[in-house]
Amino acid sequence: MAAKQLNSRKVDSIGPGRHPDGDGLYLVVTASLTRSWQSRYTFAGRRQWMGLGPAKGSNLAQARKDNEKWQELARQGKDPKEAREAERQAVQTVPTFTSVAAAYIRAHRRGWRNAKHGRQWCSTLKNHVRPLLGKKPVDTIGTDDVLKVLTPIWLSRNETANRIRGRIENILDYAAARKWRDPVNPARWRGHLAMLLPKPSKVQDGEHHPAMPYVDVPAFMRTLRSKPSVSSSALQFLILTATRTNECLGAQWSEIDLVNKVWTIPGGKEGRMKGGREHRVPLVPQAIAILEALPRIAGNPFLFPGARARRLSNMSLLQLMRGLGHGSGGNLSDAVPHGFRSSFRDWGGEVSSFPRDVLEMALAHAIENKVEAAYRRGDLFEKRRQLMEAWANYCLGVGAEVVSLDAARKAA
């Protein structure tokens, strides 16, 4: 073997040109002093050149080793370029959890019931999973990794934690179907995580929306009625109907039947109901008075139009409550708009004489007993109308009238 002509110092300092090291290895230095390795070999009776990557003194030994490998293949009558490409194809890069999650979402999002569901998927993965698992190759994720995500929130935010567990399980199953990992799923509940974590139904979930005590609701309603605005009307309507924020602020005039005094919230993929099922809400006189006082904007289908958008944002109700001393860090309470559903439920359970199933139906809660759910056909609408009238009378005082926006402005 001929003596080598290059050393580390020369590789880093030699000027432009093609400088041989021996055995077909060359250092190529351009006019701009960019340095790279090239291997010159003979294949099929012709001289061939193949690049071996950037050059520097510290990788001289590796360049010589790579060159010898390709030179030997050429001597055996094999094409070094084809052999290198075959090696590259054989090396399968396993995607990261974040990459697989993105692929799963793209494949399934059209089947989800609404856009909000997709946003929740993305936000929970971004906030809770990606910091711990995002960069890990999907085939390296095991039970300990899943527990690192779930354990910190399993007791305090169990509903969210259990949803995250299910989403991780779906993503890892997708990865297994694509042959990126072993089919044994470390996020599986039955027979696996069920042995390591408390059952969700037995966990006291701390993820409740701060609620105003029901005894304080009438005084709060009086305060709201003295603050004429679309946000105030929306919050009053939300309280009187015991609905969720998104259901209320997304309400459209086409859903309102003032003749029969019914608000029908659509279900299905494009609906706003949490359970995906249509929900009828009885409209009591106080709620109808709010609707009749609302401004109607041509071309805008929403009950509660925003100043800069077609409908109020969820933040508008939070900001209204914060301005009245409520919400996180509030001097009066930490109550938030969604918490009024709990206020309603507490009032119904402690003060009213209405049956539990009527109260649960008013909140559009799913029937937990599967046998009962199978035989339940009606929605107890007329009983719920009586319930909501009693709730409205409690909130506003028996015989109290809802102050319209126009009347309130004149009074102010």
Considering the chains and any ligands shown, give keywords for the structure.
single chain, 412 residues, alpha+beta, 3-stranded antiparallel sheet, 17 helices, 46% helix, disordered C terminus
Report on the structure:
With 412 residues, the chain is an alpha+beta fold. It is built from 17 helices and 7 strands. It has helices at residues 8-13, 60-75, 80-90, 97-108, 115-133, 143-154, 158-177, 217-225, 230-241, 245-249, 285-293, 314-323, 340-350, 356-362, 370-375, 381-396, 405-411, and strands spanning 17-22, 25-29, 35-43, 46-54, 256-257, 262-265, 279-282. The strands form 2 sheets. A 4-stranded antiparallel sheet has the order 1-2-3-4, with helices on one face. Helix 5 crosses helix 6 (143-154), helix 5 packs across helix 7 and helix 9 (230-241) packs antiparallel against helix 11.
Structural class: alpha+beta
What's the number of extended β-strand segments? Answer: 7
Strand content: 5-15%
Q: Please summarize the sheet with the most strands.
A: 4 strands, antiparallel
Number of helices: 17
Radius of gyration: 34 Å
Query: What is the ordering of alpha helices and beta strands?
Result: HEEEEHHHHHHHHHEEEHHHHHHH
Low-confidence stretches: 369-375, 399-412
Distance between the termini: 101 Å
Quaternary state, please? single chain
In which range does the helix fraction lie?
40-55%
Question: Taking strands numbered 1, 2, ... along the chain, how are they ordered across the largest sheet?
Answer: 1-2-3-4
Backbone shape: elongated
- Mean pLDDT score: 85
List the helices and strands and how they pair.
Elements: H1 8-13, E1 17-22, E2 25-29, E3 35-43, E4 46-54, H2 60-75, H3 80-90, H4 97-108, H5 115-133, H6 143-154, H7 158-177, H8 217-225, H9 230-241, H10 245-249, E5 256-257, E6 262-265, E7 279-282, H11 285-293, H12 314-323, H13 340-350, H14 356-362, H15 370-375, H16 381-396, H17 405-411
Helix pairs in contact: 4-5, 4-7, 5-6, 5-7, 6-7, 9-11, 14-16
